[in-house]
Design brief:
This protein has about 450 residues and is mainly α. The protein has 17 helices and no strands. α1 runs antiparallel to α10, α5 runs antiparallel to α6 and α6 runs antiparallel to α7.
Length: about 450
C-alpha cells in the first residue's frame, strides 16, 4: 500500500511539474477548482462505499456477494446523482467560483470519467476487502502512467495544452485503470448481482456519517482555495485572472503539503482493515497500541520533511513549481506547520470510524469546518489573500488538540507512549543504517 501511495505521489508530482509549466497561472487556478470538485466526488463516494464494504465483507464473509452487490448499486446511484448535478448546476457552480464557462465545460467533459470511476472504485473496494493490495496498486499505477504518457508526449511535441484536453486525458486514464484493475481483481469476483434492501440500509447506516465526514474533510482541506476564489474579487479587490493566479499559488502549496501527508494516507489504508478485525469486546488495548505506534512512525518521517520545507520554502517552490510561484512560499510555510500535527488528527479520525464513533467524528468535522471557515474569513479580511493560510494553521492546531483529547478519553491514548515509540523508531532506523554501513565495509574488505 505504501508502494501504491508512493507511485501516486511520484506521478502526481511529475504530472504536476508538466502541467504547471504548460498552463498559465489563471488556468492552473481553474484546474485547481476542477480537482476540488472531482476529488470531492471521488473520495466522498469512496469513503461511503469502500470503508463500509471492507468492514462488512470482513465481518460477514458468508454474505460478501450481497454486500458487494448492494455496494455496487449504491455506487451507480450516487454517480448518477452527481452527473445530474453537473448537467443542471455546473454553470451555477462555475459562476459562484468566478470561473466563467471554462470550469463548467471541464466538469461536463469529465462525465465519461465518472462513469468509469463506478467500475474503478468497485473493483478497488473488492480487492482491498480481500487485502489484495497488489491489484489496487496495479489499477492506480496504470491510471497514473497513462495520464503521464499522454501529457508528456504532448509536452515533448510542444502542442499547446487546453484544460478540456487535460480533462479528457483524465477520463482515458481512469478507463485504462479500470480495465487493469478488473484483470487483476477478477479472481475475487463471483459475477453474481444480488443486492438487498437490508444491506443497502446497513451500508448507508455505517457509511452515511463517513460520507459526511469525507465531504467535510475535503471541504476543510480545500477551504482556503475555495474562499480565495470566491472572495478575492470582492474583499481582496483582485480581478478574475489575479484571483485565479492566487488560487494557483494555494494549489501549488497544497500539492506539496499533500505529498508530505502521503505516509499518513497510506497508514490509514493499512490500519483500517486491521482495526476492523479487532474484537473491541475484549478491550481497546490493541487499537490503542496500533494508533500510538502508527502515529509515532508517521511523525518520524513527516516531521523532518516538514521542517526542511518550512526553512527552505522558496527553494522547494522554485524547484517544483517554478520561479513564477515564489510568492506561494509563505502559504507553504503555514501548511508545513499544520503538517507537524496532522498525523495525530488524521489517524484519530480514522480510529473513531472503526470503534463505533462515526457520528462523533462527523460532528467534529462539521464543527471544525465551521470554525475554520470563520478563522479563514477573519484572517483573510485582516491579512489579505495570504490570511487564509494563517487561519488554516490556527484551525488545524485547535482541531488536533480537541481530537487528541477526545481520543485520549475514549481509548486511553498517551502522548508519552507516542514519544517513546518515536524514539524507538529512530533508534531502529539508526541501527539498520549502521548494519548496512558495516555490511558495506565488510564487503569492500573481502573484495
Amino acid at each position: 500500500m505504501l508502494l501504491q501511495r508512493f507511485s501516486i505521489t511520484l506521478f502526481g508530482l511529475v504530472n504536476f511539474l508538466i502541467l504547471i509549466r504548460h498552463l498559465t497561472k489563471p488556468e492552473v487556478g481553474i484546474w485547481a477548482f476542477f480537482l476540488v470538485v472531482t476529488t470531492l466526488f471521488e473520495t466522498s463516494k469512496s469513503s461511503l462505499l469502500k470503508n463500509a464494504h471492507i468492514k462488512f465483507v470482513g465481518s460477514n464473509n458468508e454474505e460478501k456477494t450481497t454486500v458487494a452487490s448492494s455496494s455496487l448499486l449504491l455506487n451507480i446511484a450516487i454517480s448518477g446523482l452527481f452527473i445530474l448535478f453537473l448537467f443542471f448546476f455546473s454553470g451555477r457552480l462555475s459562476y459562484w467560483l468566478n470561473a466563467g464557462l471554462e470550469l463548467e465545460n471541464m466538469l461536463k467533459w469529465f462525465i465519461p470519467g465518472m462513469l468509469f470511476l463506478v467500475l474503478f472504485s468497485h473493483f478497488e473496494a473488492i480487492s482491498q476487502s480481500h487485502l489484495d493490495f497488489k491489484s489496487v496498486f496495479a489499477g492506480h499505477f496504470s491510471r497514473q502512467v497513462v495520464f503521464f504518457i499522454i501529457i508528456l508526449v504532448q509536452a515533448i511535441l510542444k502542442i499547446p495544452f487546453s484544460l478540456v484536453q487535460v480533462v479528457i486525458y483524465q477520463s482515458i486514464s481512469i478507463a485504462v485503470g479500470s480495465i487493469i484493475l478488473y484483470i487483476f481483481s477478477r479472481k475475487h469476483l463471483l459475477y453474481v448481482f444480488d443486492p438487498s434492501i437490508k444491506w443497502i440500509k446497513q451500508l448507508l447506516s455505517f457509511g452515511g456519517y463517513i460520507f459526511g465526514i469525507a465531504i467535510t474533510s475535503n471541504l476543510f482541506a480545500n477551504l482556503d482555495q475555495l474562499m480565495i476564489g470566491k472572495f478575492t474579487s470582492s474583499i481582496g479587490k483582485l480581478n478574475a485572472n489575479e484571483s485565479h493566479s492566487m488560487v494557483a499559488n494555494y494549489n501549488a502549496a497544497t500539492r506539496i503539503s499533500t505529498w508530505v501527508d502521503v505516509p499518513s494516507y497510506s497508514a490509514a489504508e493499512i490500519l483500517l482493515p486491521k482495526v476492523s478485525q479487532v474484537d473491541l469486546d475484549k478491550g481497546h488495548h490493541q487499537v490503542t497500541y496500533m494508533y500510538e505506534r502508527m502515529v509515532a512512525v508517521l511523525l518520524c518521517f513527516s516531521t523532518p520533511v516538514a521542517l526542511f520545507i518550512f526553512f527552505f520554502p522558496k527553494w522547494v517552490i522554485t524547484l517544483i513549481a517554478g520561479a513564477q510561484y515564489i510568492d506561494a512560499s509563505f502559504i507553504l510555510q503555514m501548511y508545513m506547520l499544520s503538517a507537524l500535527v496532522k498525523p495525530i488528527q488524521n489517524q484519530a479520525a480514522n480510529i473513531f470510524l472503526y470503534i463505533g464513533k462515526a457520528r462523533l467524528c462527523f460532528f467534529l468535522n462539521l464543527l471544525f469546518l465551521g470554525v475554520n471557515s470563520g478563522l479563514n474569513y477573519l484572517c483573510f479580511k485582516q491579512f489579505g489573500p495570504y490570511g487564509a493560510a494563517i487561519g488554516n494553521v490556527i484551525g488545524c492546531v485547535l482541531g488536533t488538540i480537541v481530537w487528541y483529547s477526545i481520543l485520549q478519553k475514549s481509548i486511553d491514548v498517551k502522548y508519552s507512549n507516542i514519544a517513546k515509540y518515536v524514539i524507538e523508531t529512530y533508534k531502529t532506523i539508526y541501527s539498520k543504517l549502521v548494519l548496512i554501513k558495516n555490511a558495506g565495509k565488510l564487503k569492500s574488505i573481502n573484495n
